[in-house]
């Protein structure tokens, strides 16, 4: 029998035949993509695959659950009926282990194959393990999933003393959980300041003081060399590189994320730390897109590759990716990300890329008010606001519109800064 | 994006501008947002109104509805 190859024009196929979309990851990026795909393509087949055992929940509220301040119910965002109502197939407890870009299939751990016309990888990251002796002992926690939060809550409620490692945005959540659960704690940090790549010692001292008030003691120039355990392999002590010993029956570690790129191994999808995409969230394969924490996307504002790790950005990337999966080039991702801390009496917000830049300016206004802007090539690329969030919109606008603020650093940090205060071209914004 | 509907208690005067007030207990049936889920405009209104005061948002376009709780420096409830 002769075989006949039939080529179907993709645009015709899109309009006339139903497309099949597979999304790997049911975090906020994957779930918002599914929602947008359904809005844009009422007849498409949509499958969302996750290795977690529960549908989308609010990852940025699980810390409040672990603190004991929120019940479980409001943390769930979708129940399974949300997917049924939208005719989206949800595959829980299913780990994708292989991608075949040529064959347009992904394979799960149990051998099930899923065919796709368009694939979205919204696979996020996994907390980095501390490579020291006994770091897998009982009582040592990492923090990413709701299940992690349940384990943390259960354990911290009965703990006597704690150690937290990781002086960044996730580490401080762990420290705040120990504080809220009234467990005395030591917060071990490298260097002399919390989040030292984004804050000066003066700015970080506001955070240190707030921690001390809550019975969490920052310990500087520290870290962990190894953990000691008891006969049941439960952690008892953290020993730092100086030989100082900190007793702890609860340990929280947040030293960074490993992005879940291992499934790309056998493919030619381009990635480094995360998956490379353009501003339309498309990878180097026309039919494969990526969204959320996993992407190293072309940042139109920075003019460079960038990676965000924030809820709002992941949600927006999921939406934008879906629109471009349906109609490539229809909407670009142009976004200033932000991330706040709500554990203290004063607000804290970081935006953009506060750890980048070739210059910066900062000012302190009171014991709980401080600001720092990171500047690159004369333009704002990020910042941190403590105490007063009111200039957020103005700084983000200057950043989004890539306004040259060269020579006007001091104006930018006037306490009641207004856009009109700027001179020259910057003033026209 | 939420599948939790029907959680807004009826307000005595639905036309009155929304306000916020601190809460300490959050019942399981309430819809809860983290500050970072809100738009810049709503964040600004909330930061200005917190911990108690009138909330300058358009309830028709904002993600926030009466009855919702927002996790900010305090837990506040939209009334
Ligand atoms: C404790 C905590 C507090 C945070 N606080 C804030 C905050 O206050 N503000 C803020 O803006 N951001 C915060 N973040 C960050 C924010 O939650 C993330 O940026 C955002 O959730 C990323 O969403 P995502 O969909 O890209 O990835 P994820 O939410 O990580 O989702 C990826 C999903 O893909 C699944 N997956 C991965 N690989 C596979 C595979 N091979 N097969 C099947 N499934 C797979 C994962 O299990 C996961 O469910 C916080 C994060 C944590 C953990």
Can you walk me through this structure?
The complex is a heterodimer of chains A (429) and B (79). In chain A, 23% of the residues lie in helices and 27% in strands. The relative contact order of chain A is 0.12. In chain A, helix 2 links the parallel strand 1 (20-24) and strand 2 (45-49). Chain A has helices at residues 10-16, 28-40, 62-67, 80-85, 146-156, 169-180, 201-213, 311-326, 392-400, 409-412, and strands at residues 20-24, 45-49, 88-91, 96-100, 105-108, 113-115, 118-121, 125-127, 140-141, 161-165, 184-188, 216-219, 226-229, 235-239, 245-247, 250-253, 257-259, 275-277, 288-290, 295-299, 304-306, 338-341, 348-352, 359-366, 369-376, 379-386. The mean pLDDT of chain A is 95. In chain A, the strands form seven sheets. Chain A has a five-stranded parallel β-sheet. In chain A, strands 9-16-10-11-12 form a five-stranded parallel β-sheet. A five-stranded antiparallel β-sheet of chain A has the order 22-23-26-25-24, sandwiched between helices. Chain A folds into three domains: 10-126 and 258-326, FAD/NAD(P)-binding domain, CATH 3.50.50; 140-255, FAD/NAD(P)-binding domain, CATH 3.50.50.60; 346-428, FAD/NAD-linked reductase, C-terminal dimerisation domain (Enolase-like, domain 1). Chain A has 429 residues and is of the alpha/beta class. Chain B has one domain. The two termini of chain B are 21 Å apart. Mean pLDDT of chain B is 84; it is low at 1-11. Chain B is globular and about 25 Å long. Chain B is α+β, with helices and mostly antiparallel strands. Chain A binds chain B through residues 31-32, 35, 58, 60-61, 64, 69-79, 81-82, 310-312, 315, 338-340, 342, 344-347, 389-390, 392-393, 396, and chain B through 1-4, 26-32, 34-37, 40-41, 43-44, 47-48, 69, 71-73, 75. The complex binds flavin-adenine dinucleotide.
